[in-house]
Amino acid sequence: MSSHRGASGLRTLFFLLLVMVFSLGAILLMGQLQSSRAVSEDTYVFSEVFNEVLSTVQEHYVKEVDAKTLIYGAIKGMLAELDPHTVHLPPEYFQDMKVDISGEFGGLGIEIGMRHGMLTVVSPIEDTPAWKAGLKSNDMILKIDGEPTQNLDLMEAVHKMRGKKGTSVTLTVGREGWTEPQDFTIVRDIIKIQSVKKELKEYDLGYVRITNFNENTDRELKQALDDLTRKAPDGLKGLVLDIRNNPGGPLDQAVKVADAFLSENVIVSTKGRDLSDDKTWYAHPEGAYSGFPMIVLVNGGSASASEIVAGALQDQGRAVVLGTQTFGKGSVQTLLTLKDGSGLKLTTAYYYTPSGRSIQEKGIEPDIKVEELSPDQRLALEHMRRERNQRLREQDLEGHFQSKDTDEKKPAAAPVPAEPEPEPPAADEEEAEKIFKSEDYQLERALDLLKSWEIFQAVLKKKAA
Hints:
The chain has helices spanning 2-60, 67-80, 91-102, 129-133, 154-161, 217-231, 251-259, 305-315, 375-390, 429-439, 441-464, and strands at 87-89, 104-107, 110-115, 118-124, 140-144, 147-148, 168-174, 182-187, 189-192, 196-201, 205-210, 238-242, 266-272, 279-282, 294-298, 320-323, 331-337, 343-352, 368-369, 401-402, 405-409. By secondary structure, it is α+β, with helices and mostly antiparallel strands.
């Protein structure tokens, strides 16, 4: 009897638990349905308002306007409420985007982005017209051929800078430290980007420069590393991977470049609002280039894919990162083709390094901070600036002739001794800066560190023997 009651009690308890589980599930499901219904109702209500405005404009506006202009304008306004990397690409702009990824296009050779609402140079690509003209990372593009850029989105700005080879475009540029903007007139050219460059330095130290990431980067990198390895009789003793002023490119290429030097663990992960955007990429054990120390060079022009590579190699302890803080572009854009042939570049997730760090806005902090110019070079430039500011001009001299009347001498307040002739101007400071940078202080420091590593290794082997 007692046993029967116990079994009956257990059945009752089990039934009650089952009812509670189903009830909880039903409540959660109802909540989700109500939430979805609320979103759907809101979308429906505001869509009705949009259609009402569209219809009213088409029927009563003072001039006839085609539907495409109105709809594209509305889409542009809608996406402007989001982040600067989310944009609608009309068919011709969408084609530009596809051409960029292939590694050959016509234009100036700069990667641009929005920073604090300003059209900003992320990085000029090496050996392109923009790079040769002297544009720099963080330059603000205020006008394109005299047209203010404040109301342009990224793709409109890119499209305006594109054009036939041999034609010119004038960019009005602001730069930190300048008192007023300056114009750069640049002749467009066909931009054929050699993504990877290489050189074998002394002591069998390899130097590889990745100027940008495109669909050929991983193959070019492998060729470069294989060639350097063949040229070093006893194998590479160290490698400098230079991704300074590299504006980035396709995510898959960043993963493949990092994978070339890693044999295990996470390379990068993404997290978004949708679970389908939560992804993780891992290194593969086969084919990794290892057995030598590495230094990765970065600066403020290293963005996006460059930051993924630097972050992965830094977090996994495969390389020391040297230079200055990177750009901080850590968001993922998905490119979608729309029915009319236009495109939607939509931010869908954020990048995270293997340790879980977000790249967005913060960028990658180098392990060893080294400025572009050495302390002596910075001191020399500062001396030039002071010299320039103190240099006398004719109008500063007492009793100088006025331009409007050279027959009349400006009266002097009191007799003064003759002023010495001003010294010839010192070399232009921007030209001097170019000369200093051609010496590449950061690269010299990186190579010195790798040489030191080799020396320490030799000393340790002697002690062990």
